[in-house]
Each structure stands twice: as C-alpha cells, then as structure tokens.
Design goal:
heterodimer; A: mainly alpha; 11 helices; about 70% helix; B: alpha+beta; Alpha-Beta Plaits; 2 domains; three-stranded antiparallel β-sheet
Chain lengths: ~325, ~240
C-alpha cells in the first residue's frame, strides 16, 4: 500500500503545520483588529502577541518539509524548486507557492512588530502592526484554504475532488490556530497579578468559545462529506468507503479525528464555556485542562490531514 | 468517432464554408481535403487488442528506447483473466499515456514543465520539472512516474524524438502483431483515420472527461471491481505495482 503514496508524511506534516501557522496568524490578526490594540481598548493584546509569534515558524518548517519530498531534491538538485517562482499559472500549486512565500514574509513582519518585550497596544509600532494585521488576515485565510483547493482540483482523485475539502481544511486550520495560541498561553503565561486576572480569564474564554464554534462547523462539514459520500455511488462512493466502517482508514478517521480530535475537546470546552455563557459563572479551566484540550485539537488537525491525504491516494477511479 | 471530424472548430467550419462559396464548382471532397491538409497534425494511436498477444515487445522496446529505470514503465501491458473453467478468457490491454485533449497533468503543473503541444502530444521539459508529483496524482491513467535519474516526471510522449524525424514510435515499430497504429488524425487519408472510421473504438475511463487520443478496438473494459457482481476476474501488470491503478 505504501508504494502508492506519492505524497507521504512530509506533505501531511506541511498541510498540518502550514494550516496551524496560517490559522494562528489569522486569529491573532483578527483579535488584534477587534480588541488587541486596534482601537478596542487592547485587552487581548497578549493573545494577539502569542499568535503572531507562533505563526511564522510552523509555516516555514512545513515549507521546508515540502521541498524534501520533491523528486528533484531526491535526485540531488537541491535548488531546482526555485523554478516555482520563475512563473505563475493557474495551477493551485503555483498560486499556492506564491501565496505561501508572501504569507511567510507578511507573518514575519507582523511578528516583528510584537518582538519588543515591552510591546503594548499604543507603542511606536502600533500603526505598522495594525496595517500588517489587515494584510495578514486575507493571506492567512488564503494559505489555510489553498491546500484543500490543491487536493480538490483532480477528477482522478475522487476522495479529494470536492469543494468541501478546502472548507474543511480552512476551518480546521483556524481551529488548530486557536489551539496553538491556547497551548502557548497555557505553557507560557506567568501568574497574573490580580488586576489582570479577569482579563486573562476572559481571553481564555474568548479563545475556547471560538474553538468550540469552529469545531461545531467542522463537525457539520464532516457530516456533509460523509453523508454525501455514503449516498452517492461510483467513484466517490468507492473512495469514501475507506473511511466508512470496515474501510482501511475508518479507525483513524472516526477514533483519531472525530472522537479524539473533535468530540473530546468539544465536550471539555462545553463543560467550561456553557456555565459562563448561560449563568455568567467564572470561566475557570485549570492550566492542564487547557493544555490537554489544545493538544488534542492539534492532534485532531494532524489526523484529519493524514487521513485525507492517504485516503485520496489509495483510492482512484473505478473501471477502465 | 469520425477521424476527419476531430478538432473541427466553428472557425474551421466558417472557413470551409467560405472556401466553398468562392469555388462553388469545386468538387466537395477535394475542397474538404484541401481544408484539412493545411491543418497541423494531430497525433493519435489506435490499439487493436484483437491483434495483441501480450508479448511485451512494446514494453521492451520502450524500455530500451528511453533507458527507463528498473521497475518503472512508460508503456505496459495488462493481462485480464476472467471466468471459471472451462468458460475462461484472457485478453491484453496495452497501456500508455493517453495524450488527453483535457490533460489534467498539464493543468496542474506549477512550473509549466508539462505542456500540451500543438500536435496534441503532452510533453515534459525535465529541465524545469521540479518533481512535485502533482501530475502523478492528477493523471487518471497512472501513466506518470518520477524518473529517479532526472528527478523529473516522466511518461510516454509518443517517441517525440522519433516522430519529429518522421519515424513512427518505437512500440509501433516493434509490434509483431501490428496491433498499434500511429498517425495523424487530421489527415483523412492516414491509416489511423481510416481505421477509426471503419471500426468501433473506445477510450479508457471516458467518464474522467479527459478525451484521450489513444483509442482501442475491442478492449475489454472489465475491471476488478466487476468481481463484486460475482464474476471471477483478475487484472495483473508487470509493473512494480502489480494491480491496475
């Protein structure tokens, strides 16, 4: 089975890392523009800072992984990939490479505006930071969504050949981006002074509630994908069979992604978000709970990429 | 499909109508011939599976023509066995790049290394191919592979270097059963155009919408999935991956 796989772990890792980085950047820039110093009082500035600092690294590591699996790299032409930038055409990979390069540049510049240890909503970088945030949002969304478009472009791969894969990848990217910020925050934030405790708590609530909503959307998209795959016949029907009960990827998909990556974090998040939402109680998950939830969401994001990339390659058109 | 009608665009029809109006007296067949003879060639291949004995001469000729690395194939033959004794049959399905009109591989190539030529051949420039394998995924016929020597995508190109010199492709040249017919589909006088006009031909995986220019006569389109309907059947190849993809 492995012989069929033209795209293996490096590509899967890239899809996951680039999605997470792009998601984190998009979420960070949105938070900044909405309430992190972009004119709304700046109480979530620290959240925006975590996201901005996280974003570029996974995207750059992912892009490096991408190069490792090129046939030209394997044959010893280490810099041949630069031909990607000698032209631009309507291939999703060509558009994606340019987008990726632009995103890396923008996200690095955006992170740079936060680099100062004393960065604050109204420092001398504020104007530049705000401008870059406006650019980061569309580029982040574009990088998060293009990988799904890339997979969906081929009739010869019925599992991928649906517009919903791109949507699924984008929502999952935002969700893993939020999880990455939550994880960084849980790992790094120091014991807050009492004056700031309320703010930090609200930031956690904001992120967790957004993640919960994104997971809800993701579950809806997964439901649509699986349902249409089940109801149709022919190439798509056979392809989706691999994630249906009895299929070779069913366990990874249903247990690894749906159960551990979606349901488990959603339930834990509900447990903490609902009391606050309905009864205005304190939002008080422990640091380890936040770490667990965000780790599991990240794991789910990886599982999704893994199952989708493998499933598309072990299935194909039926009949000759 | 009628060979002489291939690739007739609206402009061609308008043009030939105009020519007809000018020379009303001209005999219709000759004016049609003149209109098509001026067109650039459109290469295609017909494989008459009734004449194929599965001898692999084409596979070997192709391998040696291009020095294709071990385990990889530009051209291969599938063996289709079906039935239960004594009602059994074996047939052969020679495979190669289908030189599709809507070439999915060329559409997804990010560097333009894979491109569609005027004469219909889908060619690869290995000097600018980065080996991203996108085209390997996009091809519904699994005709492509990464050549480990060049690091570039590779596949059948109808022996471009030979036909540019007016010689037929290596597999056609070598086929002892003369199962393969290569030629210009825009020339109504060519052997391939005549064969296509006079025989029912099919293409592989028509539903993919790629509109291949490799046609088959009497191909067995049975697939391993047909086993689900209760037939005993098996498809094998001599490729590294024994199953059909």
């Amino acid at each position: 089975m492995t012989e069929y796989l033209n795209w293996g772990l490096p590509i899967i890792g890239y899809f996951f890392l680039a999605g997470t980085g792009a998601g984190a950047a998009t979420v960070s820039a949105s938070v900044l523009l909405r309430g992190g110093g972009g004119g709304f009082g700046g109480q979530h500035f620290r959240l925006a800072r975590y996201g901005a600092m996280i974003a570029p690294l996974p995207v750059m590591i992912g892009s490096a992984l991408l190069i490792l699996e090129l046939g030209s790299f394997e044959a010893g032409s280490y810099f041949k990939f630069l031909y990607l930038f000698s032209t631009i055409n309507l291939s999703p990979m060509s558009v994606g490479s340019w987008l990726l390069m632009a995103f890396i540049a923008v996200s690095l510049a955006y992170a740079y505006t936060f680099l100062d240890n004393d960065a604050s909503p109204n420092d001398r970088m504020a104007g530049r930071r705000r401008a870059l945030a406006w650019i980061t949002v569309p580029f982040g969304i574009a990088v998060a969504i293009y990988t799904g478009v890339l997979l969906g472009a081929m009739p010869a791969r019925p599992f991928w050949n649906s517009p919903i894969i791109a949507m699924l990848f984008m929502i999952s990217s935002l969700s893993t981006g939020v999880a990455a910020i939550l994880l960084a925050r849980a790992l790094l934030h120091a014991e807050a002074p009492a004056s700031e405790a309320k703010n930090i708590q609200f930031g956690g609530y904001l992120l967790t509630a957004s993640d919960l909503m994104l997971i809800g959307f993701e579950a809806a998209i997964v439901f649509l994908f699986v349902m249409f795959g089940y109801l149709t016949v022919g190439d798509v029907g056979y392809a989706v069979d691999v994630i249906m009960p009895g299929g070779s990827l069913a366990a990874l998909f249903w247990v690894g992604f749906v159960l551990i990556g979606l349901l488990l974090p959603a339930l834990v998040e509900l447990r903490y978000v609902l009391p606050k939402l309905l009864y205005h109680k304190d939002f008080s998950p422990s640091r380890s709970t936040e770490m667990l939830v965000s780790t599991v969401v990240l794991l789910g994001g990886f599982m999704l990429r893994y199952v989708v990339v493998i499933a598309g390659q072990i299935t194909g058109p039926v009949g000759i | 499909m009628n060979g002489s009608q291939l690739d007739l665009t609206r402009r061609d029809i308008v043009k030939s109508l105009g020519a007809g109006a000018v020379a009303v007296a001209a005999a219709l067949p000759s004016s049609a011939g003149a209109a098509t003879a001026a067109k650039s060639p459109r290469y295609g291949m017909v494989i008459d599976t009734r004449r194929c004995s599965g001898c692999h001469a084409c596979s070997v000729a192709c391998k040696s023509e291009f020095n294709v690395p071990l385990g990889l194939t530009r051209s291969w033959v599938e063996y289709i066995e079906k039935g239960d004794f004594p009602n059994v049959s074996v047939s052969f399905l020679p495979r190669l790049c289908n030189q599709c009109r809507h070439a999915a591989c060329a559409d997804v190539c990010p560097t333009g290394a894979t491109y569609k030529r005027q004469d219909g051949i889908v060619a690869i420039d290995p000097d600018i191919c980065i080996g991203c394998k996108y085209c390997l995924q996009a091809c519904p016929y699994d005709a492509r592979f990464i050549n480990p020597v060049t690091g570039a995508a590779d596949k059948c190109d109808f022996c471009l270097h030979r036909i540019e010199k007016g010689i037929e492709p290596s597999c056609v040249n070598t086929c002892p059963g003369r199962a393969r017919i290569f030629g210009d589909l825009n020339d109504p006088g060519s052997e391939i155009s005549k064969v296509i006009s006079r025989n029912p031909v099919t293409v592989l995986r028509k539903g993919m919408g790629t509109e291949p220019f490799v046609f088959y006569i009497a191909a067995d389109h049975a697939d391993e999935h047909d086993r689900k309907r209760g037939w005993n059947m098996r498809v094998t190849t001599h490729r590294r991956q024994k199953e059909r993809r």
